[in-house]
Amino acid sequence: MKSTFRSHLRLSVIGAIAFSAASAPLLYAQDAAEAAPEEAQQTLWDLIVAGGWAMYPLGIFSVCMITLAVYNAMQLTRKKFVPPMLKQSVLTHMGEVRVRSAIEEAAESPSYLGRMMATSLPHVDATEPETLGREKVEDAMADFAIKENPTYMAWVGYFSVLAQASPMVGLLGTVSGMIKAFQTLGLSGGSDPAKLAANISEALMTTATGLVVAIPCLFCFYIFKNKFNQLATEAQEALAQSMDAAIATVNADQQLAKVPEGIAEA
Q1: Cα separation, 252 vs 155, whole angstroms
Q2: Exposed/middle/buried for 93, CB within 10 Å: 0-12, 13-18, 19+?
Q3: Per-residue confidence at 183, pLDDT binned at 50, 70, 90?
Q4: Would you kindly state where each structural domain of the chain is located, as residue ranges?
Q5: What is the SS3 assignment for 154?
Q6: CA of 131: how far to CAs of 117, 155, 242, 243, 249, in Å?
Q7: How many CB atoms lie within 10 A of CB 48?
Q8: What are the φ/ψ torsions at residue 189 (nearest 5 degrees)?
Q9: pLDDT tens, position by position, 111-161
Q10: Is the separation of the CB atoms in 106 and 131 below 8 Å?
């Protein structure tokens, strides 16, 4: 009788433990399901508020980053730097040694190449048939680049400023949040973990936001910097090709005279 009772008791205890173990995940899942809607109700504004004052300048930085990206993407295009039609037309004029026509057509174009050629080609020197004053033309082109390039690079350089300033502001927000956290800890004696967690959340949120703004700025800086250098190099090469075409035409007769008789006709 006693053994039967003990056996039933053991089975009851084991069953209770098994039921508790089986129902625990269900209860946890139910609690998580009930807590999920509360977490889902957190909006972007709640995250901004949780980040504290530092989120506002970081928000301004992010707007500046987007504005600069759009502006540079619109400005640094091949159409505004090296228009293919202008490049081909000037090359044709210079190949026929019509320097004045090339200058006039270049002056009508607001592009980087047009302004560069309108500034440089007037220095072509017909008294130097072998080079057409190429050194003077290249000096004028260098002076043009010195004056014009900083204007374009200034807008690209702002990405670098934002990339450096954003983590610093985020770090300042982190320091501010940690100061508040320790003040809360000192005043409450550790009895108010909610306020302590809010201050720590502010500290972490500003650091993360600062990096989120800085990293794309860093990528944009190098992308647009390389893009500008590429377009400026293409413009310089176009001018060099035009000078080569003019020099080749001017010296064509002299080069032909140096060729032994019979070879040119073949």
Answers
A1: 45
A2: buried
A3: confident
A4: 1-41, 45-257
A5: helix
A6: 17, 37, 12, 9, 11
A7: 15
A8: 65, 25
A9: 999 999 999 999 998 888 888 889 999 999 999 999 999 999 999 999 999
A10: no
Q: What pLDDT, on the 0 to 100 scale, is given for residue 191? A: 57
Amino acid symbol at 194? A
Measured distance CA(115)–CA(151) in Å, rounded: 14
C-alpha–C-alpha distance, residues 76 and 70, integer Å? 10
* Residue 156, token pair as written in the block: 């690209």
Residues 63, 54: Cα–Cα separation, whole Å: 15
pLDDT single digits (tens) 62-80: 999 999 999 999 999 999 9
Q: Which of 144, 140, 115, 108 is nearest to 125 (CA)?
A: 140
- State how far the Cα of 94 lies from the Cα of 83, in Å rounded to an integer: 17
Closest among 206, 203, 202, 168 to 59, alpha carbons compared: 206
From CA 96, how far away is CA 105, in angstroms rounded? 14
As given in the structure block, the two tokens for residue 137 are 């033309």
Structure tokens at 165: 């300033």
Tell me the three state secondary structure of residue 42.
coil
Total number of residues shown for the chain: 266
Alpha-carbon torsion (151, 157, 162, 164), positive or negative: negative
Give the CA distances from residue 62 to residues 17, 65, 127, 142, in Å, rounded to whole numbers and listed in that order.
56, 5, 57, 36
185 contacts: CB under 8 Å, gap ≥ 6: 196
Is residue 163 within 8 Å of residue 219, measured between CB atoms? no
